[in-house]
Design brief:
The complex is a heterodimer.
Chain A lengths: L1 H13 L6 E2 L1 H11 L2 E7 L4 H8 L5 H10 E7 L13 E2 L1 E5 L5 E6 L4 H11 L1
Parallel strand pairs in A: 1-3, 2-3
Antiparallel strand pairs in A: 2-5, 5-6
Chain B lengths: L1 H13 L8 H4 E7 L5 E7 L3 E4 L4 E6 L3 E7 L4 E3 L2 E4 L4 E8 L6 E10 L1 E3 L3 E3 L2 E10 L4 E2 L15 H28 L4 H16 L7 H11 L6 H28 L1 H7 L3 H18 L9 H9 L5 H16 L4 H14 L2 H24 L10 H22 L5 H18 L9 H22 L10 H11 L10 E3 L2 H10 L4 E7 L4 H10 L3 H7 L2 E7 L5 H9 L7 E5 L11 E2 L4 H9 L2
Parallel strand pairs in B: 8-13, 14-16, 15-16
Antiparallel strand pairs in B: 1-2, 2-8, 3-7, 3-10, 4-9, 5-8, 6-7, 9-12, 10-11, 15-17, 17-18
Helix pairs in contact in B: 4-12, 5-12, 6-10, 6-11, 6-12, 7-11, 8-11, 8-13, 9-10, 11-12, 13-14, 14-15, 19-21
Chain lengths: 125, 598
């Protein structure tokens, strides 16, 4: 019975290990329902900074917490995904923040380390 | 549309890009013809800009019988695991001509490149085309290979390889995106279903199922004395299946609305209230109060049991699920929240079906035996209920995990465990040996967890690791001479150390206090005994860039480290080992392989 308890807890806890990425349309719908801000990351596989964001920053517990609290995350790969026309970029990664009506509320270009990324998220709100 | 564009322009203006150069400022390409009819192409890189070596491509797009014979490239350097040009590179392109080509020829040379800024932005692929008039009489004749193989596009090997590399990169990228999608949907279905089946069986052992027993017994008995075991079995199965259908519907619904639930569960006040609901439900499991439907309704359904027939039994099964509903509400809610998390309706249905089958198995037994095998109520039933109560409290804490500090969470788990252990009788004399053992073990473990938290540890598996760390440093201080990192914060400090330890292998670890991946690296990977032993072969230097001071920045920039964690390796000669750099967390096993491969 203990085992069951632990395996259940394990299943529960393994669900919260990383940033949840949604598809754009789904994310937009959730953002509408929950009145959250859409964070769209434009990236490229070949981009070293994007790799850093993916392997380090988006595994940080505080980043995950903050994103989950107020944002819905979307990752768009410039090589394969259709990029909405409004989401411009001069390079990758570029972060666009949109409200539930898809109006731009904030944007920053380039990757950030954990503390400055958290700070940037604070500025969005 | 125009309005939109204007708006966009405004928006981009408002959120101007303060710190990044525009691509045309970051990279300034030139190409000119020298005296020996070679093209000298160079790309001026602005401060803090680098180019990927493997993305650089030089090709002729208008040839007129002229082709590239050879390209002399400068040496690229290891930059954070990629080969890159950090100083403005110059490429010398030697040309050759086809037989029969003479006089002045117009050619177009295309220079393609891609790079990033050290400040953390990777630019889009760029290219520039240059026009030249080539006096082909000054060119060497192309060495023809087998004429039949010559398809008139004689680009040298180097230029040909680049696009191929690009292709493989792209396909790798595809699989990586897939991998992200996979991790979202991870979770082994079989294990999930088995867990839910067990969950159901456990539920059947709570007093919750009691209201169902008279119903199913009633159904069987109402069929008359001559009922065969087979008929009794079939009736029981129909009853259980109908009940299962009711729960399955609940599961599917939870799955369908899961995404919203999931999103809702990310808002702090929703988390607090859900967590509160779970605590309330747990209290009901502990018997502080009872959740149930009005007795009149229960009686009504019981009475209709006399109707008989499969359909009647099925309807009753379905309704019974509702009767029992409030009693199993707490565990059921837990199950539904879990299903909601997955956002998967099919899985949700399957899981809840498995759970209700688990719940139904004992009922089938009761039905077939017409009440002979009824479980005897006793203290053990209260115990099962209490276990559910503890699970509920566990879930309540788990939900808070997203918004509450890790230490507090671990503390809460520890308190819950200690409480449960005491309930099980850990501190009392007497009791069954098995139960007592479980209770005492749980008590000791959670007590360790509690002490661990007070000592600053949050690990669930090694709560007392802080003790171990202390004893080893005390007892084997000599042995562990190198296990400690020498901390530095600037280039000058590092250079002094590099000079001092010339002739030894050096591991340079970029770290910062705010960097959780670095902590993981230290607590998991560096603690591994084998890794530790291997690391002793290195002089360990830690670049602490917590302050993010100018000196810190200069240090990171010098080694092309965008952010911590990063592990760099130096040879005995003091030379940085190209392509051996590790970015981000790495687990003990692959790290050991990496170290052995140096």
């Amino acid at each position: 019975m203990k085992k069951l308890l632990f395996s259940l807890l394990f299943i529960f806890s393994s669900l919260s290990a990383q940033v949840q990425w949604f598809e754009y349309d789904k994310a937009l719908q959730i953002a509408k329902d929950e009145n959250k801000i859409l964070m769209v990351m434009l990236g490229r596989d070949s981009c070293s900074v994007c790799k850093y964001m993916k392997t380090v920053v988006f595994h940080d517990k505080n980043v995950i917490k903050k994103l989950e609290a107020g944002f819905i995350a979307v990752y768009l790969e410039l090589d394969f995904d259709d990029i909405p026309q409004d989401l411009t970029y001069i390079g990758t990664p570029t972060f666009h923040f949109l409200d539930k009506n898809e109006n731009a509320v904030y944007r920053f270009d380039g990757g950030k380390t954990v503390p400055s990324f958290l700070k940037a998220l604070d500025e969005v709100n | 549309m125009k309005k939109l564009l204007l708006f966009l322009l405004l928006v981009t203006g408002v959120f101007a890009l303060p710190s990044f150069l525009m691509p045309e400022e970051a990279f300034i390409p030139h190409a000119k013809l020298n005296d020996t009819m070679q093209i000298e192409a160079d790309i001026q890189l602005a401060e803090g800009i680098y180019l990927y070596a493997d993305k650089l491509k030089i090709e002729l797009i208008t040839k007129n019988g002229i082709s590239i014979k050879e390209i002399q490239s400068p040496k690229s350097v290891d930059h954070d695991g990629d080969m890159a040009y950090v100083d403005s590179p110059t490429f010398i392109v030697s040309l050759q001509k086809e037989a029969g080509v003479d006089a002045m020829q117009e050619i177009q040379l295309k220079l393609s490149y891609q790079g990033c800024s050290e400040k953390g932005l990777c630019y889009e692929p760029l290219s520039k085309i240059f026009d030249f008039s080539i006096d082909s009489s000054a060119l060497e004749l192309k060495q023809t290979k087998l004429k039949s193989l010559d398809l008139g596009d004689p680009t040298p090997l180097k230029a040909e390889q680049t696009p191929q590399k690009e292709k493989t990169k792209v396909s790798q990228g595809m699989s990586e995106t897939d991998a992200i999608a996979d991790t979202i949907k991870s979770g082994n279905i079989f294990i999930i279903l088995l867990t839910f089946l067990g969950f159901g069986l456990l539920l059947a052992l709570t007093p919750c199922v009691f209201p169902m027993i008279p119903i199913i017994s009633g159904v069987i008995i109402s069929q008359g004395k001559d009922i065969t075991t087979r008929k009794a079995f079939m009736l029981s199965v129909v009853y259980v299946l109908a009940m299962a259908v009711a729960y399955t519907i609940a599961g599917v619904l939870a799955g369908l609305f899961g995404a919203n639930l999931q999103a809702a569960l990310q808002t702090p006040w929703v988390i607090y209230s859900f967590s509160g609901v779970f605590v309330a439900l747990a209290m009901s499991m502990f018997g502080f109060y009872e959740l149930k439907l009005p007795d009149s309704l229960v009686a009504k359904v019981s009475a209709s049991g006399n109707r008989g027939g499969y359909v009647g039994v099925a309807i009753m099964g379905f309704l019974s699920a509702l009767i029992v509903g409030p009693c199993v509400a707490a565990p059921l809610a837990g199950a539904l929240v879990y299903i909601g998390q997955t956002g998967d309706a099919v899985l949700g249905g399957m899981a809840l079906f498995a759970m209700s089958i688990g719940m139904g198995l004992p009922l089938i037994l009761v039905g077939v035996s017409a009440g002979r095998f009824m479980p005897k109520p006793g203290i053990w039933m209260t115990m099962v209920t209490a276990i559910f109560g503890v699970m509920m409290l566990g879930v309540a804490i788990w939900m808070l995990e997203r918004i509450v500090d890790e230490q507090i969470i671990t503390l809460l788990y520890a308190i819950l465990g200690i409480g449960f252990a005491i309930y099980l009788g850990a501190l009392e004399s007497g009791g069954h040996v098995f139960k007592k053992t479980v209770a005492v073990i749980l008590f000791i473990y959670t007590l360790a967890l509690f002490i661990g938290v007070l000592a600053g540890s949050v690990s669930l598996t090694k709560p007392l690791a802080f003790l171990q760390a202390k004893t080893t440093t005390v007892s084997s201080a000599v042995e562990n001479k190198h296990a400690e990192f020498i901390k530095i914060t600037s280039i000058s400090e590092l250079d002094t150390l590099l000079e001092k330890h010339k002739g030894e292998k050096i591991l340079l670890d970029f770290s910062a206090e705010w960097c959780t991946a670095c902590k993981e690296l230290e607590e998991v990977t560096f603690r591994d005994p084998e890794v530790k032993a291997k690391m002793d072969e290195f002089v360990l230097i830690q670049a602490d860039i917590t302050q993010n001071s100018d000196e810190n920045k200069a240090l990171s920039k010098k080694y092309g480290v965008f952010g911590p964690p990063a592990l760099l390796f130096f040879k005995e000669s003091g030379e940085l080992q190209s392509s051996k750099t590790i970015i981000g967390f790495i687990a003990p096993d692959p790290f050991l392989t990496h170290l052995n491969g140096l």
